């Protein structure tokens, strides 16, 4: 039994020696400022569309969302978003551009398999479960609210 404990201790020492050292504060700071910067771009687009095109309400939100999704897909396509993701970590996936990245990346990866079996079928490999579980969760919450307010 002692040799098993000694082997575990040796293994843990070995792992701690070869594991790269990380700076958690630096990672958190990068994620915070990059995610915040992406959101500031969205806010700047909102102000631009509001003042230049006199948009408001749902139209304004729709145009900003479409622009951010387009930029996320474009930057993924030309390889910039991957570098942003390596630098910022989770800060790059939180805004709407991260969703665009999660749809475009698999589509680009599997485009060599053809349009139907590659691009179209693999496009939602990453984003598909998020869409499904988000939709199911929203339906369940909506039913919960409906039942609660029908009872009360």
Q: What is the C-alpha radius of gyration, as a whole number of Å?
A: 22 Å
Helix and strand sequence: HHHHHHH
- Tell me the fraction of residues in β-strands, as a range: under 5%
How far apart the termini lie comes to 62 Å
Number of distinct helices: 7
Spans with pLDDT under 50 lasting ≥5 residues?
A: none
Which structural category do the helix and sheet elements fall into? mainly alpha
Shape descriptor:
extended
Q: Please state the average pLDDT score.
A: 85
Oligomeric nature of the chains: single chain
Binned, the helix content reads over 70%
Number of strands: 0
The largest pleated sheet is described as:
none
What does this structure look like?
The structure is a single chain. This protein is an all-alpha fold and 152 residues long. The chain is built from 7 helices and no strands. The protein is extended and about 70 Å long.
Short account of what is shown:
It is built from 7 helices and no strands.
Key traits:
152 residues, mainly alpha, 7 helices, 81% helix, 0% strand, extended
List the helices and strands and how they pair.
Elements: H1 2-18, H2 24-52, H3 57-77, H4 80-88, H5 96-109, H6 115-122, H7 127-151
Helix pairs in contact: 2-3, 3-5, 5-6
């Amino acid at each position: 039994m002692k040799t098993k404990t000694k082997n575990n201790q040796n293994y843990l020492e070995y792992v701690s020696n070869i594991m790269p050292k990380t700076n958690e504060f630096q990672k958190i700071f990068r994620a915070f400022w990059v995610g915040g910067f992406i959101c500031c771009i969205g806010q700047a687009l909102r102000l631009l569309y509001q003042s230049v095109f006199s948009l408001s309400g749902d139209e304004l939100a729709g145009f900003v969302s479409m622009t951010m999704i387009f930029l996320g897909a474009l930057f993924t396509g030309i390889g910039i978003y991957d570098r942003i993701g390596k630098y910022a970590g989770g800060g790059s996936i939180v805004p709407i551009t991260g969703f665009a990245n999660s749809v475009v990346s698999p589509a680009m990866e599997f485009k060599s398999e053809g349009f139907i079996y590659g691009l179209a079928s693999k496009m939602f490999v990453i984003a598909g479960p998020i869409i499904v579980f988000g939709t199911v969760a929203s339906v369940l919450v909506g039913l919960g609210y409906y039942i609660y307010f029908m009872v009360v």
